[in-house]
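Example complex used in Figure S2.
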Amino acid sequence: MSESRDEAQIIASILAGNTHEFHDLIRPHERSVYVMALSLLQNEADAEDAAQEAFLKAFRNLANFRGDAKFSTWLISITLNEARSRLRSRKNVKIESLDESPDGQDQVSPALLRDWREIPSEALERKEIRLLLQHAVADLPSIYREVFLLRDVEELSVNESAEVLGITVASVKVRLHRARIMLQKKLVPQLKRFNPRRRWFSWS
Amino acid sequence: MVIECKHVWEHISGYLDGTLSPEVLEQVQKHLEHCEICSAILDSTRNLLILTADERVFELPLGFSERLHARLEAEIRGLKRE
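Predicted assembly (286 residues):
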C-alpha cells in the first residue's frame, strides 16, 4: 500500500513541475515494459524502441492517469497498445491460424507423461533453457500470448488483465488455461531432455 | 463422483490458481491421488509457470536503462524549453 501511495505522491509532484522525478517513477517498471514489448514484437531492437515510446507516452499523458488503476497496469496497457499498433503497421503481419477459436469449446490437450522431475530455477542459468521458454511463449497465438504475459509473467490479476485487454473475466480464464496447456504440451517434451537421470548438480 | 482424465485437464488452470469450487476441487484431488498421468501434467504445468515467471528468462539488453533515461531526459528538457 505504501508503495502505491509513494507512487501517487511522485506522480503529483511530477505534474506540479518536478518532471525529473519521472526517472525514479519508472525505474521499477523498466523490465516489465520491455518484456511485454519483446514478447509481442519478437525483435529486440523493435521492443526497445517500443518500450521507450511507451514510457514517453506515459510521460506526455501522465495528467490523464487516474489513480483507480495501478500505475504499473496503466503502463502495461500503453505498452500493449504501442506493440499492437506496430504489429498492425508491419507489412508481413503473421496471419493467425483460422482454427484458433478464442473462447469456444475446442479442447486443448496437454502432453501426457507418467512422471515429472522438477526442473529447478537454477536451470535458467543455461541460455538454451531460457531461449526454449522465450520461444515457446513467443510462438503462442497472440490472443493467448497476451493473456499469458499479463497474468503469468507480469502477474496482473484476472480482473486487471480483463481490463487491459478489454475482454471479459471469463475470457481471460479460458484463454489463460489454453495458453498454459499449450505451453505444457510444447515445452514438456523439450524440457524432459534436460531432465537429468541423476542429480541436477552433476553437470556444470 | 469419479471424473475422467479429460475433465481433470479442464481444471488444471483453476486448480493452480486456487479458484475451483470445493466440490470440483475434491473430485480433482481424488482423481490425482490415483492418476499418475494427471499428477505429472499438473506438476509439469506448475513447474513451467514458476520458470516462465522467473526474471532470468527475459533479460534487459545491456545499456537499456541508460538509453531509455537519456531519451526521456531529452524529452523532459525539450518540454521545459517550450
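Chain B has five helices and no strands. Chain B touches chain A at residues 6, 9-10, 12-14, 16, 19, 36-37, 40-41, 43-45, 47-61, 64-65, 67-69, 71-73, 75-76, 79-80 (CB under 8 Å).
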